[in-house]
């Protein structure tokens, strides 16, 4: 572990490797680069302190660079103990001068000490992926709430928590839910999660997916992307849902839909993507096949009831890095990936830079929106204005070399009228 002034990372000697990774990702993030270019000129975040609790990856590094280009004083900590890329953390400190508090594999005490260090920065704007900074602020550091103009939230799980706080009247400042932007959840959640989750499973296990029964728990945008990619790899996909409309969508998309109690008996690979707790529980472990693989791609490691799995097992082994084997009293072995944490980040590299390009453009523009409009915002969860979403989509299309049509005056007038019929 190396500690620089106002930073805590594993090894600053990794900085050159991290800088190369950051540059590689930057080449695939043209929308964020365009935002950064404007931020350098306009400086919309001048004089503002920001505490960012995000996955410390090469893509995140380019977001941090963009915020700094806009004038913000940024401090970064990890939003998951296993998602940090140590070389990227080192590069942000040594090459870009950003205070970073993140070490891959840090224990729970260190994780929360790093969040506390970010809060000690006394932010004007928070930026979360899972609402942990916001949670700590509201539980333990309420004296800082009055200084905060607003915050942003990246992921579905965090938005769920924040809407619950709003409903209970507990939210201490306004939040922009970046996850609700179309250019975030329609692409990052579906295409990013779909690809990166499969990548994490394959890196951890090297199993063949073709012909396997692949159980996806949850058919939100993340689950849909995962189900599509698993089917594309030749797997037989079963979807588990509690929402009738989503279950119907899964059925009409061609997937088998079943309760988890039934799916547990036939599945070879199980992945949770719900944002809820104990989706796969003790009674389901008891029904599973020998060799079943368990993984989670939701934000927190509570979707699989891991304490029950440990209690049920006679012994635990480590057949591969990032894989735990749990031997049951009847001789069956169940395999848990990445300690039940986000398998796409804990066992792989997370979403491709090309899709995080749009998500992090949303984050940067959400920070600007808070900086400009905070006086007008109530203590509620907001979405970004649709014109910002549209602009991000236009920039992405231009970067891809794709042109689209625009409405003629006649067409626009027709869509805005009511008196012209058949």
Main features:
422 residues, 15 strands, single chain, 7-stranded parallel beta sheet, alpha/beta
Work out the strand percent: 5-15%
Q: What structural category arises from helix and sheet content?
A: alpha/beta
Q: Measure the end-to-end span.
A: 72 Å
Radius of gyration: 22 Å
Low-confidence stretches: none
Major beta sheet, specifics?
8 strands, mixed
Helix run count: 17
What's the count of strands?
15
Helix content: 40-55%
Q: Give the overall shape, derived from the CA principal axes.
A: globular
User: What is the averaged pLDDT score?
Assistant: 95
Strand order of the largest sheet: 9-8-7-10-11-14-13-12
Give the topology.
Layout: H1 15-26, H2 30-42, E1 49-54, H3 58-69, E2 73-78, H4 86-94, E3 100-101, H5 108-120, E4 125-128, H6 132-140, E5 150-153, H7 156-167, E6 175-177, H8 182-205, E7 213-217, H9 221-232, E8 236-240, H10 244-252, E9 256-257, H11 260-266, E10 269-272, H12 282-285, E11 293-296, H13 306-312, E12 315-320, E13 323-327, E14 333-337, H14 343-346, H15 353-373, E15 381-382, H16 386-399, H17 409-415
Parallel strand pairs: 1-2, 1-4, 2-3, 4-5, 5-6, 6-15, 7-8, 7-10, 8-9, 10-11, 11-14
Antiparallel strand pairs: 12-13, 13-14
Helix pairs in contact: 1-3, 1-4, 2-3, 2-15, 3-15, 5-6, 8-9, 8-15, 15-16
């Amino acid at each position: 572990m190396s500690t620089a002034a106002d930073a805590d990372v594993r090894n600053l000697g990794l900085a050159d490797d991290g800088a190369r990774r950051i540059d590689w990702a930057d080449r695939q993030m043209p929308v964020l680069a365009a935002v950064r270019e404007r931020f350098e000129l306009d400086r919309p975040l001048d004089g503002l302190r920001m505490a960012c609790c995000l996955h410390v990856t090469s893509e995140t590094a380019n977001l941090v660079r963009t915020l700094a280009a806009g004038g913000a004083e940024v401090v970064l900590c990890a939003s998951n103990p296993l998602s940090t890329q140590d070389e990227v953390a080192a590069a942000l400190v040594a090459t870009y001068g950003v205070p970073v508090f993140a070490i891959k594999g840090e224990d729970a005490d260190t994780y929360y000490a790093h969040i506390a260090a970010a809060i000690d920065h006394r932010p004007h704007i928070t930026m979360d992926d899972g609402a942990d900074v916001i949670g700590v602020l509201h539980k333990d550091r309420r004296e800082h709430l009055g200084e905060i103009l607003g915050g942003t939230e990246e992921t579905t799980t965090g938005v769920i928590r924040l809407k619950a706080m709003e409903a209970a009247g507990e939210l201490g400042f306004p939040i922009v839910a970046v996850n609700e932007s179309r250019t975030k959840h329609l692409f990052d959640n579906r295409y990013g999660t779909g690809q990166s989750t499969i990548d994490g499973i394959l890196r951890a296990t090297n199993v063949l997916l073709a012909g396997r029964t692949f159980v996806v728990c949850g058919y939100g945008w993340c689950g849909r992307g995962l189900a599509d990619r698993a089917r594309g790899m030749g797997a037989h996909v079963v979807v588990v849902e509690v929402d009738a409309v989503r279950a119907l969508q899964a059925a009409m998309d061609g997937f088998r839909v079943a309760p988890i109690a039934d799916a547990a008996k036939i599945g070879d690979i199980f992945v949770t993507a719900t944002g809820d707790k104990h989706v796969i529980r003790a009674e389901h472990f008891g029904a599973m096949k020998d060799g079943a693989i368990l993984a989670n791609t939701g934000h927190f490691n509570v979707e699989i009831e891991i304490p029950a799995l440990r209690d049920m097992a006679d012994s635990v082994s480590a057949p591969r890095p990032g894989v735990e084997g749990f031997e049951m009293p009847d001789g069956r072995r169940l395999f848990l990936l990445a300690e039940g944490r986000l398998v796409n980040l804990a066992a792989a590299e997370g979403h491709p830079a090309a899709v995080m390009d749009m998500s992090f453009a949303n984050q940067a523009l959400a920070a600007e929106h808070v900086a400009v409009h905070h006086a007008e915002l109530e203590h509620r969860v907001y979405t970004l204005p649709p014109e910002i979403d549209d602009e991000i989509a236009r920039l992405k299309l231009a970067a891809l070399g794709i042109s689209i049509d625009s409405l003629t005056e006649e067409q626009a007038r027709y869509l805005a009228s009511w008196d012209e019929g058949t």
